[in-house]
Amino acid sequence: MADWSESRGLRFSSTKSSVVNFTRKRCSPSINLSLYGHRLPVVTSVKFLGIILDSKLNWCHHITELKKKCLGRLNLLKMLNGSSWGADRKCLLRLYKTHLRSILDYSSIIYGSASSGILQKLDVIQNQALRICTGALRSSPISSLHVETNIVPLTHHRSGQILRYYFKVLKNPTHINAYRLNCPTQSSCSTTLQEICRSLLHFYDISPSNLEDLPMKAIHQQLDHSINIVLQCQWTNGPSNKLRLLKPTLEEWSTSYQENRKLEKVLARLRIGHTIATHQYLFTRSPPPICARCEILIDVPHLLNDCQNFSISRELLFGFSPFPVYNNLTNTSPKFNTVVQFLFREKSALYNSI
Ligand SMILES: [Zn+2]
Known about the structure:
Among the domains are: 2-43, no CATH class; 158-237, no CATH class; 259-353, no CATH class. The protein is mainly α and 354 residues long. Helix 3 packs antiparallel against helix 5. Helix content is 52%, strand content 5%. The protein is built from 18 helices and six strands. Zinc ion binds next to loops.
């Protein structure tokens, strides 16, 4: 190797070099290699271009380090998350995408071949970030966080990136990985990348022949559309969820973004259906709360629609007939602003207990 490098005018640094034996065997043979008379240390993992390659290639070490790095960066979001003075949701989500998800995206095409159990460690990062951005409680379902913020779950986001890469290679026959992805047989050159791409194309019901002639921008749009169809199907057929009653279709809601940060949090909690008034008992391990006046279990529809404690404000703003305030939390409701007035009017008893 030393002769080869010197014949090409290169010289490897022996102090920066090490040996990794890539094998899944527990007992690997001892290796004794030296470079320029310097014996190279045998290690179980090595960092190359920001990616930690471990000897078993299961990416466990890389993902653990990535998670540690992201948890440190989450502190920035926490610092900006004040109820009265904090940054708004738009700013926090932008910060999450640029400051955290960007480092999760780096090399995700490579480490995406790790087992789902190992990859799930990274889901914690996005879940926690979305909780901070929305102000949702810890008890809020994870699916609700993704739908409320219109952010794609990390697994599907990673799949989208792998498929974008697949089509980028497919459109460029001279690409270094072109032979790996186009190999017709799953023989010696069949790789996990090829297998992953094939299974993803099948999962999202994508036919490469329909897309390969399109420009890359159109391919990206089609991939996003296919992923969205799967996500919508999962949301529609998933377990019962309070947010789904208000938001059956996956889309961005303009009313989720408010100038008042406290109002943003209150609206998100009411829509998700998990508020301090209704779900704090889960953290204190107490029995579920009962409304002292109505003698009924407290939930968000009860607080907004039926609770006698707020009947005066409700009748004043919505009229004397029973009015479904809860249903008007939706983005397109003509009475949405009246709901906000109702919340501000009951500031001490309702708004501040959410
Ligand atoms: Zn009540």
